[in-house]
Amino acid sequence: MPRVALVTYDPRPEPSKDRDLPVLRAALEAAGAEADAVIWDDDQVDWASYDLAVIRSTWDYSWRADEFTAWAERCGKLTRLANPAAVVRWNSDKHYLGELAAAGVPTVPTRYLAPGETVGPDSPDALPGDHEYVVKPASGAGARYAARYTPEQHETAVRHLARMHAEGLTAMVQPYLRGIDTGGERALQFFGGRLLHASRKRAVLAPGTAFDADKVAHPGLEPWTPTRAELAVAERALAAVPDAPELLYARVDLVDGDDGEPRVMELELVEPNLFLFLHPESVSAVAAAILTAAATP
């Protein structure tokens, strides 16, 4: 009987937001595995006792990225970790978008501003002056510390940057692509090396919403049939991941550029929501791929 750790977070005092976890755990147990939901930073866990540890919903990691990547390195030495620790380290910092762009993958144009870099007379082009844009952290999730601005909101955006820099966070500045307002954001989910399903959500960042306000991470979520162009861009992005690692799962988030063509907004290789509650037909395929991975030497 294979033993599988479904790695999650400690949500207390609130209930867990991972709606997929109990469903996936039940499917694995029905298929003959022993499956445990395990908190990643619980120092009492014997990771070596598992045949496979699958990172599923470690949704508090982005504010503790160094601690989390160190955990992934330790866990990966004790058992098989999916996705591998090297992938976790690379994907936990959105500087990877620059690497994808350099590899020829269509991405949302991104500029990075690290702590110590100022936005003022010495860097007048750091924030756009002729179009809407988004400011968000290079290590973040769920639209936390993200906001969209018009050129007229320059001073507010500067205060946003100062707050992130004071907390040691590198900021990303991206154009706000208007295609999000009409076509939404599409998430293509891969599991076991194959396209599993796809979903679409509506725009997350409403005008005037403060960067530190709570946001709905997946508004208007619905099933989606990806176009050939979307699938081609997603596959190019996955092929550009360094050192061609074996990925158990991946989610490629796409939006339309001003030319109407899909671009990568994010490549989620650490802890993407699978949206199994929206695609119940995918549960058996996910369970089968996890069991195959657990049985692989």
What does this structure look like?
With 297 residues, the protein is an alpha+beta fold. It is built from 8 helices and 13 strands. The chain has helices spanning 21-30, 65-78, 85-91, 96-102, 154-166, 179-183, 228-239, 283-295; strands at 3-8, 34-39, 52-57, 80-82, 111-113, 133-137, 147-149, 171-175, 185-191, 194-201, 222-223, 249-256, 262-268. The strands form 3 sheets. Strands 11-10-9-12-13 form a 5-stranded antiparallel sheet. Strand 9 and strand 10 form a beta hairpin. Helix 1 crosses helix 8. The radius of gyration is 19 Å and the shape is globular. It starts with a strand and ends with a helix.
Measured by DSSP, the beta-strand proportion falls in 15-25%
Q: Which structural class do the helices and strands define?
A: alpha+beta
Stretches with pLDDT under 50, minimum 5 residues: none
- Major β-sheet annotation: 5 strands, antiparallel
State the helicity in percent bands: 25-40%
| N- and C-termini, Cα separation | 15 Å
Q: How many beta strands in the DSSP annotation?
A: 13
Q: How many distinct helices?
A: 8
Which strands sit side by side, in order, in the main sheet? 11-10-9-12-13
Which radius of gyration do the C-alpha atoms yield? 19 Å
H-E string: EHEEHEHHEEEHEHEEEHEEH
Assign an overall shape: globular
Oligomer: single chain
User: How confident overall, as mean pLDDT?
Assistant: 91
Task: Give a brief outline of the structure.
With 297 residues, this protein is an alpha+beta fold. The chain has helices at 21-30, 65-78, 85-91, 96-102, 154-166, 179-183, 228-239, 283-295, and strands at 3-8, 34-39, 52-57, 80-82, 111-113, 133-137, 147-149, 171-175, 185-191, 194-201, 222-223, 249-256, 262-268. The chain starts with a strand and ends with a helix.
